[in-house]
């Protein structure tokens, strides 16, 4: 027994706490104000969580001699570790608190589920069942996990895009009203009688310029979210394709059929079809923005059903993390 | 008329709608339990919809066996046809078009391009150096330029579609000509393919003879099953061995047209030796039955009392390690006995456990479509990666005091914009 596996609950609890601290730090950056201290807290805690998850999984790998993806507990931790890695890359590329504010709550939810909700027997490492004793395990499951994490990041960014976009649409729609309100208040404050006097002051031009700057910033923000959402989905999709194919080849070796319409397989196919539709709408039709974002945010729920929801059904061949 | 129909099928909107419908249909299949008896549906889906019980609707629409109903297969067929039409009508012509380099010689042709430059002068040698440096293929004709790169990405989506069609065709072939059978064979016995659970319209089942030479399992120190092995031989008509292999889960025996898998295992009975003073020796076989508990396999049998002094036992077997547990009739544990050991020994009679007869679950499958499917998989992996490479084009037309230039790309637009900034250095405006 190594030090890590003896104190596994301590390690996983500290991962949970650091994710919690990091999430609250990011949310206060986004909602209140951006200070250096908060940024540093977020940075340190997220690095700590990534590192300790990585150490925990590596330790399991060394101690039990197989890739740490044999049960639900390990796969949840593996997924959070991957999500944290994706987040670190995004954070490194663009220093925006948005990615942390979106990805860390997801990681927080996953670790909370793994640590507090899963029964203790399911958290323990046990021997690999015969069907999993194959080199395909590493290939298939790690690729699926990688694609899930990328698709989750991409589709959650699409959800953020939709929310911000709808608000932005509302903002643009009410802009003439606000301009009128501004004019009214200025005229009242300065006691201007006619519209001519107001226009002569030139205040409306300054107001318009300010509005343009706001619009510009928000459009840029939307554009960036949209393009990062597209990038991570378009990276995750080939991984999903290869992962499903690896699974099919493995199933043909272990179960005697490359495709058996098992619920997990079926939902993986639905995920694939969903994001295939997204990419077609995006690349072939050439639409950006709202319609692809709706499809991608639908994909967020589909990925979650595929990854976790199917386990609650308790039927089929992927019986490695059922609750029943 | 037919051409218009195919054109309609090639429509992307239709394809996306088909994808959506397929997604919804297959998700229904994960909610409603598949391939159960009618009684199960009658019990679980008895709610009334417009005075019609739900289970009748389910059975009528084939929702109990959704993945092989005719209308679902038809849906997959339409998807395949739509893919094929899209490839033939839309993708292949654009490939032909982009292989022929073509120049833009009219100014208004530049209007619809994504990026445009109007300048006074261009330095052609500098520009062509930059273009070639960026790995463009460059063509020149009198006063105009055309350059492109990433032509392979045009092939990518076509190959994606073709390989999906391959996979669909392969699975159709497998469904028509393949079969799947499951046999539970006691060790040391001969068998043929008998219990076919799935077969197609054109399947033919080979009359090969197989022999299970041995079956054994290995366990982890904590008592969980680690792996199970079957030593299997294939015999020819005369009973001579042609081929022999030890198969296990994840390690099947591949023949030319058949694949033999290790799937399950079981225990059929106990072999006992009964020794009496009057009868010298008697070999008995005790039947045994399996109890289905949630996650553990348990076999149970009862050993009746023989004679007056002996007791009766309940026999329980938990695994295939050669050990049985004996309980008395009150269910109290008495002892464990290994193969070869004595169960009881009185003055008159003796009972020995000789063997536990285990059986191995073998699945024999024939799938003539698998090569086609693997072929499709192989190309799908590569083409899905290739499809992300950008296809970028560049045009230029110059006159003595006027230069017009433009370009477009289909994937990485930001990167192309940066490239274009490089090209701009060759212009004087």
UniProtKB/TrEMBL annotation, chain A:
Q: Which GO terms describe its molecular function?
A: heme binding
One example of a Gene Ontology biological process annotation: cytochrome complex assembly
Supply the alphabetized keyword list: Chloroplast, Cytochrome c-type biogenesis, Membrane, Plastid, Thylakoid, Transmembrane, Transmembrane helix
- Top-level division of the source organism's lineage: Eukaryota
Give the membrane topology. Answer: Multi-pass membrane protein
One Gene Ontology cellular component term attached to this UniProt record is:
plasma membrane
Any idea what this protein is called? Cytochrome c biogenesis protein CcsA
Organism of derivation: Ectocarpus siliculosus (Brown alga)
Q: Which gene encodes it?
A: ccsA
Automatic annotation (TrEMBL), chain B:
Boundaries of every ResB-like domain copy: 12-323
InterPro entries attached here? Cyt_c_bgen_Ccs1/CcsB/ResB, ResB-like_domain
Membrane topology term reads: Multi-pass membrane protein
List residues traversing the bilayer: 12-32, 44-63, 69-89, 158-176, 372-398
* Keywords, sorted A to Z: Chloroplast, Cytochrome c-type biogenesis, Membrane, Plastid, Thylakoid, Transmembrane, Transmembrane helix
Alphabetized Pfam families for the sequence? ResB (PF05140)
Subcellular location(s) of the protein: Membrane; Plastid, Chloroplast thylakoid membrane
- GO annotation, cellular component aspect: chloroplast thylakoid membrane
**GO terms for biological process?**
cytochrome complex assembly
- Return the HAMAP family for the record: CytC_Ccs1
Self-association state and partner proteins as the record states: May interact with CcsA.
Q: Which family does it belong to?
A: Belongs to the Ccs1/CcsB family.
Function recorded in the entry: Required during biogenesis of c-type cytochromes (cytochrome c6 and cytochrome f) at the step of heme attachment.
**Which protein are we looking at?**
Cytochrome c biogenesis protein Ccs1
Protein's organism = Ectocarpus siliculosus (Brown alga)
């Amino acid at each position: 027994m190594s030090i890590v596996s003896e104190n596994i609950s301590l390690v996983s609890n500290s991962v949970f706490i650091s994710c919690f601290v990091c999430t609250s730090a990011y949310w206060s950056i986004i909602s209140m104000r951006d200070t250096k201290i908060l940024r540093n807290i977020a940075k340190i805690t997220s690095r700590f969580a990534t590192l300790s998850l990585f150490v925990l999984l590596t330790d399991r790998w060394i101690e039990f001699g197989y890739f740490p993806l044999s049960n639900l507990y390990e796969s949840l931790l593996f997924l959070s570790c991957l999500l944290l890695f994706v987040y670190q890359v995004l954070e490194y590329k663009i220093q925006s608190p948005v990615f942390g504010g979106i990805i860390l709550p997801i990681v927080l939810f996953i670790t909370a589920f793994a640590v507090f909700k899963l029964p203790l027997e399911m958290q323990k490492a046990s021997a690999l069942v015969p069907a999993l004793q194959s080199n395909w395990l590493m290939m298939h499951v790690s690729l699926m996990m990688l694609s899930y994490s990328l698709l989750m990041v991409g589709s959650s960014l699409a959800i953020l895009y939709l929310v911000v976009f709808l608000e932005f649409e509302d903002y643009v729609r009410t802009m003439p009203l606000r301009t009128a309100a501004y004019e009214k208040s200025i005229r009242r404050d300065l006691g201007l009688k006619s519209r001519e006097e107001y226009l002569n002051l030139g205040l409306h031009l300054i107001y318009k310029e300010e509005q343009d700057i706001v619009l510009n910033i928000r459009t840029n923000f939307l554009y960036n979210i949209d393009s990062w959402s597209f990038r991570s989905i378009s990276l995750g999709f080939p991984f999903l394709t290869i992962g499903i194919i690896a699974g099919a080849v493995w199933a043909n070796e272990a179960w005697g059929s490359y495709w058996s319409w098992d619920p997990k397989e079926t939902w993986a196919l639905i995920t694939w079809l969903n994001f295939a539709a997204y990419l077609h709408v995006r690349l072939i039709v050439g639409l950006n923005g709202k319609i692809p974002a709706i499809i991608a945010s639908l994909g967020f729920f589909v990925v979650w059903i595929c990854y976790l929801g199917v386990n609650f059904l308790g039927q089929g061949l992927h019986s490695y993390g059922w609750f029943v | 008329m037919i051409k218009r129909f195919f054109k309609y099928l090639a429509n992307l909107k239709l394809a996306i709608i088909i994808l959506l419908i397929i997604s919804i249909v297959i998700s229904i299949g994960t909610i409603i339990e598949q391939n159960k008896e009618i009684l199960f549906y009658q019990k679980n889906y008895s709610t009334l919809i417009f005075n019609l019980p739900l289970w009748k609707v389910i059975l009528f629409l084939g929702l109990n066996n959704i993945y092989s109903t005719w209308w679902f297969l038809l849906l997959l067929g339409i998807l395949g046809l739509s893919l094929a039409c899209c490839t033939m009508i839309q993708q292949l012509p654009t490939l032909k078009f982009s292989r022929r380099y073509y120049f833009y010689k009219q100014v208004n042709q530049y209007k619809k391009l994504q990026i445009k430059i109007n300048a006074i002068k261009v330095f052609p040698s500098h520009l062509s150096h930059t273009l070639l440096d960026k790995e463009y293929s460059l063509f020149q004709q009198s006063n105009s330029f055309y350059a492109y790169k990433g032509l392979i990405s045009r092939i990518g989506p076509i190959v994606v579609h073709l390989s999906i069609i391959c996979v669909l065709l392969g699975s159709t072939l497998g469904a028509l000509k393949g079969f799947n059978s499951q046999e539970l064979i006691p060790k040391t016995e001969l068998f043929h393919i008998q219990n076919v659970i799935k077969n197609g319209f054109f399947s033919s089942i080979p009359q090969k003879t197989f022999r299970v030479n041995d079956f054994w399992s290995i366990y982890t120190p904590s008592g969980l099953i680690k792996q199970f092995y079957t030593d299997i031989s294939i015999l020819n008509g005369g009973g001579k061995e042609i081929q022999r292999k030890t198969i296990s889960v994840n390690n099947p025996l591949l023949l030319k047209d058949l694949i033999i898998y290790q799937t399950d295992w079981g225990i059929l009975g106990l072999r006992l030796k009964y020794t009496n003073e009057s009868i010298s020796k008697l070999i008995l076989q005790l039947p045994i039955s399996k109890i289905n508990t949630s996650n553990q396999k348990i076999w149970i049998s009862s050993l009746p009392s023989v004679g007056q002094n002996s007791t009766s036992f309940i026999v329980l077997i938990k695994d295939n390690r050669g050990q049985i547990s004996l309980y008395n009739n009150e269910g109290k544990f008495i002892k464990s006995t290994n193969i070869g050991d004595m169960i009881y020994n009185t003055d008159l009679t003796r009972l020995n456990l000789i063997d536990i007869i285990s059986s191995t679950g073998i699945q024999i499958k024939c799938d003539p479509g698998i090569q086609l499917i693997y072929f499709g998989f192989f190309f799908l992996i590569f083409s899905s990666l290739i499809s992300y490479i950008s296809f970028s084009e560049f045009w230029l037309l110059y006159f003595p005091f006027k230069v017009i230039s433009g370009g477009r790309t289909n994937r990485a637009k930001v990167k192309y914009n940066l490239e274009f900034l490089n090209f701009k250095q060759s212009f004087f405006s």
